[in-house]
Design a protein that fits this description.
It contains twelve helices and 15 strands. With about 280 residues, the chain is an alpha+beta fold. It folds into three domains: about 45 residues, Uridine Diphospho-n-acetylenolpyruvylglucosamine Reductase, domain 2 (2-Layer Sandwich), CATH 3.30.43.10; about 120 residues, Uridine Diphospho-n-acetylenolpyruvylglucosamine Reductase, domain 3, CATH 3.30.465.10; about 100 residues, Enolase-like, domain 1 (2-Layer Sandwich). The strands form four sheets. It has a five-stranded antiparallel beta sheet. Strands 11, 12, 13, 14 and 15 form a five-stranded antiparallel beta sheet that branches. It has a three-stranded parallel beta sheet with strand order 1-3-2, covered by helices on one side. A hairpin with a 2-residue loop joins strand 8 and strand 9. Helix 5 packs antiparallel against helix 8.
């Protein structure tokens, strides 16, 4: 449980962080809740830790017109309590309150959670359901990556070795009235065995559009496309049948928490419950 030897530098600005990332085998350190356990198990052995945890310029929630802009170092606790998120994108604020325990929420950051690329993490699933955009700075300047293109594999994202995730942009839900995030875990602070994010646009009794994403049902967060297609233009009565398609196209793992078959059944059950709760809002 002792990390391998490493050097440590604290960045005073984004530009300095990018410069330090140019060194061989450098890793960013924000809240540390994802990286440090891997280092203690020696599954990660960076030669240099670049601490960006005190870059206040990357901690904010701002109104950006049709979107909300969130700095990558905004902590989960601040997401839970931010009035802009509570008003315009409550599913993100609510989900942040389900992460870990109070210590984790006070130290962990949205950028760290997203950049880590863990398929069992809650916020990446919600961002995928929201069609969020991620702002990245690197040696070639700034670029925007859609959430659908950001998560590429197990602990693998679109970030290069010298890239820094700086901002997450989520839509104001507006006419997307119904939302829900549900997850099953054995203890409150555990990673999700399975999670479901659902956002619905409806008119009277008709579901005009649905966005549904799954946690821990593959190597990345996944969109439940079959469920979305089944719900589009349908009535609320179709929810139970649509939810039975939740596991289509997924490849859930089998581990000490659950078998793949258990996860498939759980995804169908949680999807139905999440859709029903979203319709009730």
């Amino acid at each position: 449980m002792i990390p391998a030897k490493f050097e440590y530098e604290r960045a005073e600005s984004v530009d300095q962080a990018l410069e330090l990332l140019g060194r061989e085998d450098a890793k960013l350190l924000a809240g540390g809740h994802s990286l440090l356990p891997l280092m203690k198990l020696r599954l990660a052995r960076p030669a240099l830790l670049v601490d960006i945890g005190r870059l206040e310029e990357l901690s904010y929630v701002r109104d950006a017109g049709e979107q909300l802009a969130i700095g990558a170092l905004t902590r989960h606790y601040d997401l839970v309590n931010d009035p802009l998120l509570q008003e315009h994108c409550p599913i993100l604020s609510y989900t942040a309150g389900l992460i870990g325990d109070p210590q984790v929420r006070h130290r962990g950051t949205i950028g760290g959670s997203v950049a880590h690329g863990d398929p069992a993490s809650d916020l990446p699933t919600v961002l995928l359901a929201l069609d969020a955009e991620l702002g990245v700075r690197g040696p070639d300047g700034e670029r925007t990556v859609p959430a659908a293109d950001f998560f590429r594999g197990l602990f693998e994202t679109a970030l290069g070795p010298q890239d820094l995730l700086t901002e997450i942009r989520v839509p104001k839900l507006g006419t997307w009235k119904g939302w829900c995030y549900l997850k099953f875990n054995r203890r409150a602070q555990d990673w999700a065995t399975v999670g479901v994010a659902a956002v619905l646009r409806r008119d009277n009794g008709t579901i005009e559009e649905a966005s549904v994403a799954l946690t821990n049902m593959g190597l990345t967060p996944l969109r439940a496309k079959a469920v979305e297609e089944a719900l589009s233009g349908s009535s609320a009565d179709s929810v139970a049948d649509a939810a039975q398609k939740a596991d289509e196209g997924s490849s859930p793992p089998s581990d000490t928490n659950a078998s793949a078959d258990f996860r498939r059944e759980l995804a169908r059950v949680l999807t139905r419950r999440a859709l029903e709760e979203a319709l009730s809002r």
